[in-house]
């Protein structure tokens, strides 16, 4: 059973995971609207992954006998200056998520909630990959700069990403 503090923190973060899904869904559509279909695919896969993250929290809270509370969702930005801007915003968001996961893990230890502490380990590991992916793409985009050919090549690479549930 989750204590009050742990429940509130996990439930709040569950809603943040849903916001992550919203954010990447919006980025996917923006990429599509500027003709970058591969990038649109990359963000669509990212959206699907975020829904998995959301459902992990949803199922965990339910498995502890509590019912989840969905909160109102703020709208993500719909316009971006460039592809680099999108990925810089993505990395910034993922760094925020990493801080949230670290805070949740600290709380689980403080509350001696071993089940939640184990549950959160998956996310601690996942965040390493989340940030790494974004940093890799930002590095490539900085090298590419304004080179249209390079941008299209990278877009083609991003078309190959597939969702692995
Ligand atoms: Fe992008 O890792 Fe969840 O939010």
TrEMBL record:
Gene3D superfamilies: 1.20.1260.10
Catalytic activity: 4 Fe(2+) + O2 + 6 H2O = 4 iron(III) oxide-hydroxide + 12 H(+)
Residue ranges constituting the Ferritin-like diiron domain according to the UniProt record: 1-145
Keywords: Cytoplasm, Iron, Iron storage, Metal-binding, Oxidoreductase
Location (main, coarse): cytoplasm
SUPFAM superfamilies in the record: Ferritin-like
A single GO molecular function term of this UniProt record: ferric iron binding
One BP annotation, GO: intracellular iron ion homeostasis
CC terms in the record's Gene Ontology section: cytosol
EC identifiers of the protein: 1.16.3.2
Compartments in which it is found: Cytoplasm
Binding site for Fe cation: 17, 50, 53, 94, 127
InterPro entries assigned: Ferritin, Ferritin-like, Ferritin-like_diiron, Ferritin-like_SF, Ferritin_DPS_dom, Ferritin_prok
Family as reported in the entry's similarity comment: Belongs to the ferritin family. Prokaryotic subfamily.
Functional summary from the UniProt entry: Iron-storage protein.
Annotated protein name in UniProt: Ferritin
